[in-house]
Amino acid sequence: MTVAQRCSVGLLLWIWLSNALAATADHTQFDALQGSFTSAQEVTQACLSCHTEAAQQVMATRHWTWEYENPHDGEQLGKKTMLNTFCIADRSNEGFCQSCHVGYGWEDQQFDFTNEANVDCLACHNSGDYVKGWAGYPVEGTNLTTVAQAVGETTRASCGSCHFYGGGGDGVKHGDLDSSLVDPHRGLDVHMASDGLNFKCSTCHQSDDHNIAGSRIQGTAVDNQEAMLRGHHDENRNAATCQSCHGQSPHETGADAQRLNDHTRTLACQTCHIPAFARGGVPTKMEWDWSTAGQLDENGEPFEITDDNGHIIYMSKKGDFVLEENVVPEYVWWNGDTSFVTADDTINPNERVMVNTYHGEPGADDARIWPVKRSLGRQPYDTVHNTLLQPQIAIPGNDTSFWYNFDWDKALQAGTEYAEQPFSGEYDFVDTAMLWPITHMVAPSEDALDCASCHRDQGRLESIEGVWMPGRDRHVLLDRFGFGVAGLMLVGVFGHGAMRFFNRNRQKGH
């Protein structure tokens, strides 16, 4: 049995044992959770009466700070400084964006990151009927006692309540994460299939002191280590990689096993095993044009336009969208290093601005060919300073859907003042793009890409440099030489055959 096979058996045993032990204490019987809570912070304080270190652990993670250090160049980045092609900027819109924050009360720059009571334990450990609203507080009408007494381990639904809906709606941002993964079939995701392995998010994204492995911001593009036994802690290993379970030689049977294993030195596993994303019936947003926001109908009222399937493709408060399903990824070389454009960076408005850039030298040992979603945008920029702007597009209030988009002057003035960003008052809109790695919705092996998907003219990797691909690449002189040699061989074969034929007839004549 190979290392990968032993680790696979160990993984299945670990999943079985984890499920067997998953039943936690009956929280309905805990004295601290009896009675009614008057605030969400009271629930956290009750949790901390037993889980004494949990809040401090959470507060040391990116889920709390929304900041991190780029391990490749040491640059400090975070949601407060980064921009995107979706909701443009977190800065000045904290109250709306933080409906997915694992805390309570972050709606402006006065948020107290040191207050343990602001940590939201229910955000991840709820039973599925917990919804967060403005500034991360539970929506009005939430029975905090009922939710607190029903806490348990994380699930696909609890993780997905934020990660499936990033960017403003179901499936909007990532393309390979949407509500179809709450109860997926095997054809959608071979790992998370409810009637199959039934992986939770935490099966791959394991945590240590609430610090969860895996990142879409700075990913592990190459994992050269062997498979590891699940449940064993390794502080030097990001467990959320294919290799952490399947090792470096994942193909073990079939005549082409070794040839396919050789491909892992060039391709990410996801490149072949995720043939398309947004495959679960939920479309993903491929384009978002903010420049058209603010249009009103003949009565001077905001309006929406839907497509034939009932999906919104225009909103007065957001602009135009292009939605797609079953999307074929684009492919890029990536070594895990990603750089981002911030509000301080100067852009060239005469070309499409890459809000983030994936780095990786074609053919390098530390890079692999990865599938990505390329999200296109059109967003405001300062025509004098040539910087992307941070509009305020959400304001506090009972109606958290009220946006400033109907008046771009007002939105940009308010946002840049809040963010303390220089603003000339002159603006226009510029085309942008952003990449997201595709790593979920892993198809069954029988649905993986075949050789002809890439090894042909106009195949999937047509534009990828750094590799010589039979079927795609050719050299004219070499082709001529090869065909010439083949032609001479054919002439020789036919000539030899003809000589034998005539010699045989001559022998018969004698």
TrEMBL record:
SUPFAM superfamilies (UniProt xref): Multiheme cytochromes
Manganese in keyword set: no
InterPro entries xref list: Multihaem_cyt_sf, Multiheme_Cytochr_ET, Octahem_Cyt_c
Leader sequence residues: 1-22
Keywords assigned by UniProt, alphabetized: Membrane, Signal, Transmembrane, Transmembrane helix
GO MF annotation terms: oxidoreductase activity
Domain of life: Bacteria
Keyword Ribosomal protein in record: no
TM region positions: 481-502
NCBIfam families from the UniProt entry: octaheme_Shew
UniProt name for this protein: Tetrathionate reductase family octaheme c-type cytochrome
